[in-house]
Model the fold of this input.
Amino acid sequence: MNPLALMLAATPDRLIVLNPVDLAIIAIYFVAVLMIGFYLKERASTGEDFFLAGREMTAWIAGLAFLSANLGSLELMGWAAASYQYGILATHWYWIGAIPAMLFLGVVMMPFYYISKTHSVPGYLQLRFGEGARGLSAVTFAFMTVLMSGINMYSMALVMKVVLGWDINFSIWVSSITVAIYVALGGLRSAIFNEVLQFVLIWLGAALIPILGLIEAGGWTNLQARIATNWAGQNFTSLWSTLGTFEGNPMGIHWTGIVLGLGWVISFGYWTTDFLVVQRVLAAKDLRAAKMAPIIGAWFKMLVPFIVILPGLLGLGLLDMKLTGEAEAIATGGHSYNEVLPLMMARYLGPGLLGLGITALIAGFMSGMAGNVSAFATVWTYDIYRAFMKKDASDSHYVSMGRWCTIVGVLISIGTAYLVMQFLSIMDYVQALFSFFIAPLFGTVLLGMLWKRATPAGGFWGLLAGTVSSIGMWAWVKADPTALSIIALSPNAKDMAENMYRALWSWIVCVVVTVVVSYMTKPKPIEELQGLVYGATEIPSEHGVPLMSKPAFWAWVVGAVFVVLNVIFW
Amino acid sequence: MTGENGQISIWYFIGCLLTIYGVLITGSGIYELFSPPAHPVVLAEFHAAVWWGLLMLAGGLAYIHFFRPSKGNK
Done:
């Protein structure tokens, strides 16, 4: 049974009761985001405005939106739960699983995305490899985006049901219609505008829990000691030292899986090719802003464990009860891992602050959903509708299509949410489905940007082969669980480890097939690669730019802090 | 988005919202000072709502001041 459904069954009553001040704070938030949508409606009249926010975002706005689109409420709840279950190992998803990739996007890949003037990642593939690669990536992205959006919507409504006792239908319809209105009115500009607002609210709503928790624990060192006392024989506070073996840590993963699977393929795949996040950076006002945006995002991403991972660790050290898996929580009438963040909220946040904390969760959900629908509208309109259905319509026609597509995307998401409600097993598969496309896509985009010899046929067949191989490996393990020891290199590997290694193999398949097919086929003339590939693109020189204004300098600073943090929490 | 092109800055919107929230949360914290709840939260003696609310209020007012439309941010 699905963990969230179990969570619902496990909790007979709401965890948190809101008072009128809390409800007022939540209501004001909804009014504010709608006001922003109406205010920006007049500034979304052209395709450039609606789909790319006029390409006038500063580095800070683009960078915060880039991060906020990823910082969904399920991310907050889910990773707080994961940190209770796996300890500080969950931080890898924020540090090695994000920071190097974000810096790489800013410094290495952004010039090609930006100079090519593409409107989307599939759009870049069309310029580099032709319609085949664009079509394949656009269709899979559009399908997965609305599916994920619906699943997140249902999950969020379920959380609100458990935490606050709110009706699931009410949560689904009110939050999704609000997102549909402000994105359909103001397009990407409205989505980005609200994402920045949501980013601020997420931090203000969530930061008090770790602050007060550390005060109660008596600081980090005392918290570590408390966890060690409460959980004798288990190491929950070491980032790397337990990863020498699959059996030595609660995640059942080896450091090679973390470094190569997560840190390389999955992380680079998501942060450099998932259009949901890349779209925010494409809206930057110039190349320097576009390069700085992911670096600014990386800086704040590095801080996110403070509000997401630390609450889980505080739960390990401070809660009187021991949280369990969902099935055990049902059997014993206790609480599950998934409830650790609401439990910590209820522990520290009184009236007013509780409303702010819940607003942070709602803001997280809405920023993620707005990211999904705005990216879906762009890819559908430009990479499917204009590319394959109606090539020569007016700009206003495509803007109109984008608005309708936003509404339709939300409605499909709502439909998906209800479908998931009926067939909960869908959720078990979709996370895996999403990973099918990300890793190979990264191989295709990377070779496209860095290797002039890669040909259109190589790009298409590499992407297809990588995707098919990933699906094949997943099906193989489903049909024969003993295959896990081959795919993930150990029979003790857990689901997360399997995902890491499957991504790695599918990326390798993609790269190998792309290289082999490229050598067998005719490359594009060099003049057709200008603005698209390293070695054929004139990247504006930063000679004479002050050091403090150079993206590369800040990338080194963030990189150095990243290394130091990993050493400190080794 | 930062006030160019005749547009109100996003930071001004954020300032307005933080100010409203700051007033509500500080007010709620002050009310609890004089009328403590029957089941206080852990570390209630720190009166987090008061100082966190004041922090938001100060931040909100600063954003309103620095990004107000009349200051060339419109």
Summary: Chain A is about 75% helix and 0% strand. Residues 168-206 of chain A form the longest helix (39 residues). Chain A touches chain B at residues 21, 24-25, 28-29, 32, 36, 39, 43, 53-54, 56-58, 61, 189, 192-193, 196-197, 200-201, 204, 208, 212, 215-216, 346-353, 356 (CB under 8 Å).
